[in-house]
# Entry
Amino acid sequence: MVFNNGTYHMFVAYIQGVRGNWGGHARIAHYTSKDMWDWKFEGFPQLTSEKVIDPTLFQLPDKTWRIWYKDEDHGSHTMMASSKDLNKWTYAGTEPAIGGNGHEGPKVFRFKDYYWMVTDEWHGMRVYRSEDLNTWTRQGLILDVPGKRKDDTPTGAHGDVVVTGDQAYVIYFTHPGRKVHSESPVNEDGIQPYSIRRSSIQVAELKFENGTLTCDRDAPFDFYLPSK
# Structure
């Protein structure tokens, strides 16, 4: 969700129906609101395909907006499009912003004089660094080693990042009933059991060290979010 010219814009992954496992026609839906209470459906943005989810938005210094998202029709890679008004989106070709192995959940943010993106590779979260939001340098993984806190296992997945002053916090989820994140058996009815689906929300502090981001998910920290 972003705020622009007096209006809140929410871009959310949408799959019709209630499902027992992952599937269905996934799209990104766009809503607007003046008060974050009453929302108007604006439609489905025209992007590189109709099978897109996991949007993250960031505004450039020239006020242009960019959206990065997972495109399941393009190798489950991260694609990028631009907009002046958050309604009409344009993109140059179908080359991914982030290619390589399939991934999801891109999150873009500014921290310590760099732009950063984290993506979920399903065995931890990959870090990318950029100086211009165009070229991304692949860094290491974070949250790829199980934590010691309650339910903080096996690996951290599909996170968001909140930056406040000199601190940055990664908020992520785990499936504590699984031995590895990708474990997803179904029962005789074709449904994943509760123990496999159960999720826990966790938070850890990100550190800027030796030009990259690191995260010790077991380290104590003061979790402070200002009211404004």
The chain is about 0% helix and 45% strand. The chain has a mean pLDDT of 95. Residues 204 and 217 are 5 Å apart (CA to CA). The two ends are 16 Å apart (CA to CA).
